[in-house]
Amino acid sequence: MTDKIQHIITRVKTSKYIRPAYHIAFWILVACFYFFMFSWNSAFREATIIFSAGLLPVAILLTYFFNHFLVPRYLWKKRYGLFLLYSFFTLLAGVWLSLLIVFYALIYILKSKAMIDPSVLHPELQVISLNFIVFFAIAVKQIKRAFFIQQEKNELERKKLNTELKLKEAKLKLLKAQIHPHFLFNTLNNLYGLTMEKSDEAPGLVLRLSEILDYILYRCNEKKVLLYDEILNLQNYIEIEKLRYSEKLSITVDFPEETNNLQIAPLLLLPFVENAFKHGVSHNPGTAKIICSLKTRHTSMVFKIENSMNPAKPYIKNLSKGIGLSNVKKRMELLYPKKYELKIDENEATFSVTLALELAE
Prior knowledge:
The protein is of the alpha+beta class. The chain is built from nine helices and seven strands, in the order H-H-H-H-H-H-E-H-E-E-H-E-E-H-E-E.
């Protein structure tokens, strides 16, 4: 029943007759307004009808001339001087025409010019009532126009925001798709190395890898995950890498045990840790050092990771321009605009990344 009523309302709104009906109803109300105004304290009923009938067509003519010619051609185009000039002469002509119509209508009824007292014409009342209706109709038209323009702007803005949102989602999916294969390739290489060595640590690595895969394949489909889960994923990854580089790695990790249910975009921190192991440990012939920490305060967090560098490998410089870190920067621009601060320090001995991030919505 509700759908049927809504359908009827929609058909009425889109009907080609609805607009003329509004205009007719408006001018009927104007005619009633004129009749009651001129009949106030007047015993001459015929004169009341003459005033109303004389002013109404002039008011209609002036209103549509303003709304469909003067206003669009001059006012909307900000030609204010010409608009005021033409408006003055148009209103002057309208007043003169209305007085003329009323004057000769009264002559027709009274049969003689001599019998007409000039005060009977009420020129000041005609000017006020005529201009009032014209200005009111123009104001209604302009308010209606402004309303529809604002509606169009809102609709365009809504479409623009929807388009931007879809583009953001597409970019995020692409960036996450780049993260997953890169991460899995490195981890499987680690597992391959341990199985070739027939290490007893291989089962533990498989278990941690399964937890990481579960996190990536299922829980990372959400826009936000618990910061606590993101930290667990980092710990699993670090433990896997510790198994691989046990003899040449010195790592210090400081993660909080409580994160107060803070949420973060999934896999946002992992590329920084990957980068530290890939360039700070695998390319270092001696003992490599990694220091990783995460601190939370209220609704913000600070993540920092630092790794030693091999000065004998000049091609490792400019790590901040790598694909992994570049992807992270793009994701943060999309997900946390103006809510993060990323600082990268790079020299011959160390490479460090500090990320300050506001996690509140």
